[in-house]
């Protein structure tokens, strides 16, 4: 470790010049934080499994460790995997987003066979309904369907989800920069924002059990599961936002809500545009 490198204390978030000092080939001493007087990064000595458990438990200390005190070079691979997982759920019409689309467009059912308790389609303006045709449910399990068509449809859905995520990250970065414009905090590099997104988006993995083994599960159980995962994901993103941008929780919550709305609206309309272009 060099003295010029900038790290973060996992406890208080203050900068630190080094994580540890070496006093010989077998002697290593963890650096103390000048602000809180605690160890700058206790996770250096922890097993990666412990770090993963703390990340699942939404520990800000573990999040700071990964985002500031490790290289985390494979974040872009993680982002691709997570986007593909989210795409698969939406492509199968088996996600909370599809249920929301069914309500907006006035579809009686989606793939989970959940009848929407609230139908807001009658109050929607025409520009919203103009993209509903692209979300008409088609059973992907029928044997006589053309696999090439379904494969192309998956890639179209992937691009629409990707466009929504780009808008999500861009909106969050722009609003957070505006929110911290009058502060003395250091600006967040775009690479760190991407790493933060990939770290928080890991929460979507909790939809995997229902996607894989949930075919025999009741519709009510499935929708409850998706809602719980969505709430958990929102809290994880909120935690990461406050760690990276150091904004107040209320302001971060409002910005995060705007980001989610922008992402979903973009994906909703992008699907119709892309299917028009590729059909």
Automatic annotation (TrEMBL):
Q: Which GO terms describe its cellular component?
A: cortical endoplasmic reticulum; endoplasmic reticulum membrane; Golgi apparatus
Transmembrane spans? 74-91, 154-172, 193-211, 223-245
Q: Chief localization class? A: endoplasmic reticulum
Q: Which Pfam families match?
A: Arv1 (PF04161)
Task: Give GO terms for biological process.
Answer: intracellular sterol transport; regulation of plasma membrane sterol distribution; sphingolipid metabolic process; sterol metabolic process
| Keyword set, alphabetical order | Endoplasmic reticulum, Lipid metabolism, Lipid transport, Membrane, Transmembrane, Transmembrane helix, Transport
Localization terms from the record: Endoplasmic reticulum membrane
**Membrane topology recorded in Swiss-Prot or TrEMBL:** Multi-pass membrane protein
Q: Where is the signal peptide?
A: none
InterPro entries linked to this entry: Arv1 (IPR007290)
Q: Which domain of life is it from?
A: Eukaryota
Q: What does this protein do?
A: Mediator of sterol homeostasis involved in sterol uptake, trafficking and distribution into membranes.
**Which family is this protein grouped under?**
Belongs to the ARV1 family.
The entry's protein name is Protein ARV
Instruction: Identify the species of origin.
Output: Chrysodeixis includens
